[in-house]
């Protein structure tokens, strides 16, 4: 019986192996043929950090950010739209939509009660969005010294089980 | 009936080829989407983003031509199961990420529609797999 099963399965595994070998082989060959081959191992966290540093900002991962929530002088700023913010947000966060950087940012930040000495943690939706970095850079330029960005955004916060409010 | 299943298998092949195109053109955008699912470690993301679309191409070509059809249909079903599971995980965790199923552009966010679409493709995959395996079994 085992022999029959083996004989039946062996060609199937061979078929699967052919598919995987062809797929991997093609991906290696085509990547080498690119004008700028994509690295097979990319340290995305380091990329985020470099991008933020280029803008004069520090980064923080969601695990570390959770431990900062509620500490004196720490303010979480949500760079998403008012609509997104109203639906679900980091507990106690303040909404400063990224679009505010195109207007009177000082006034908008003042209305939220942000002070120059506050430790501001800016976030947006997820790793795909750059709003937090753009707003963080604008806040730094506007004189807020301690601006930190959480590149993983609200999705990263959710993934580590950070406290939220206004959940749908 | 046989013609119907052959056409179904070929259509599925075209779907896989179509799905692979955008990811091959912009692997870094696809890598960012994979990373945003927060399932794989960062170190594995780029390799998966580079390899997965080409496996889709091979599976698509095999389904289209009938070459190693059992392996191709089974691979297609397994891939769709993994994609659906990843989407369900992101949905459950409240991660509002892009699906990364057919495009790397920002117009394919995970939603009920993506579940229905991919669930339908999965159903077709299972039908084709069943048909291919039954035919292989009946073959002398």
Automatic annotation (TrEMBL), chain A:
The residue ranges of the Rhodanese domain are 70-166
What InterPro entries has UniProt attached to this entry? Rhodanese-like_dom, Rhodanese-like_dom_sf
Keyword annotations: Membrane, Transmembrane, Transmembrane helix
Q: Which residues cross the membrane?
A: 12-33
Q: Which domain of life is it from?
A: Bacteria
Name of this protein: Rhodanese-like domain protein
TrEMBL record, chain B:
Q: What is this protein called?
A: Hypothetical membrane protein
Instruction: Please give an example of a GO cellular component term from this record.
Output: membrane
Q: Which InterPro entries match?
A: Methylamine_util_MauE
Domain Methylamine utilisation protein MauE, by residue range, is 1-129
Q: Tell me the Gene Ontology biological-process terms attached to this UniProt entry.
A: methylamine metabolic process
Q: How does it sit in the membrane?
A: Multi-pass membrane protein
Question: One Pfam family, short name please?
Answer: MauE
Q: Which organism is it from?
A: Solidesulfovibrio magneticus (strain ATCC 700980 / DSM 13731 / RS-1) (Desulfovibrio magneticus)
- Annotated membrane-spanning segments are 43-64, 71-91
Locations listed in the record:
Membrane
Per UniProt, the keywords (alphabetical) are:
Membrane, Transmembrane, Transmembrane helix
């Amino acid at each position: 019986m085992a022999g029959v099963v083996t004989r039946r399965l062996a060609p199937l595994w061979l078929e699967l192996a052919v598919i995987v070998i062809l797929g991997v082989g093609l991906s290696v060959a085509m990547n080498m043929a690119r004008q700028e081959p994509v690295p097979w191992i990319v340290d995305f966290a380091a990329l985020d950090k470099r991008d933020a540093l280029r803008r004069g900002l520090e980064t923080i991962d969601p695990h570390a950010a959770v431990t900062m929530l509620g500490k004196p002088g720490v303010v979480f700023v949500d760079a998403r739209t008012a609509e997104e913010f109203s639906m679900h947000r980091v507990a106690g966060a303040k909404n400063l939509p990224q679009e505010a950087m195109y207007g009177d940012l000082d006034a908008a930040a003042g209305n939220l009660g942000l002070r120059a000495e506050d430790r501001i943690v800016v976030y947006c939706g997820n790793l795909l969005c750059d709003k937090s970095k753009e707003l963080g850079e604008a806040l730094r330029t506007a004189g807020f010294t301690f601006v930190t960005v959480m590149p993983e955004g609200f999705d990263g916060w959710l993934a580590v089980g950070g406290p939220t409010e206004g959940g749908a | 009936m046989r013609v119907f299943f052959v056409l179904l298998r070929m259509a599925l092949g075209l779907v896989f080829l179509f799905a692979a195109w955008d990811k091959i053109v912009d692997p870094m955008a696809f890598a960012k989407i994979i990373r945003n699912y927060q399932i794989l470690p960062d170190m594995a993301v780029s390799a998966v983003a580079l390899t997965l679309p080409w496996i889709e191409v091979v599976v698509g070509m095999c389904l289209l031509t009938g070459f190693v059809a059992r392996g191709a249909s089974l691979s297609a079903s397994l891939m769709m199961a993994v994609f659906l599971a990843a989407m369900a995980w992101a949905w459950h965790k409240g991660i509002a990420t892009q699906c990364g199923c057919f495009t790397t552009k920002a117009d394919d966010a995970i939603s009920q529609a993506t579940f229905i679409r991919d669930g339908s493709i999965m159903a077709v995959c299972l039908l084709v797999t069943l048909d291919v395996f039954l035919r292989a079994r009946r073959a002398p």
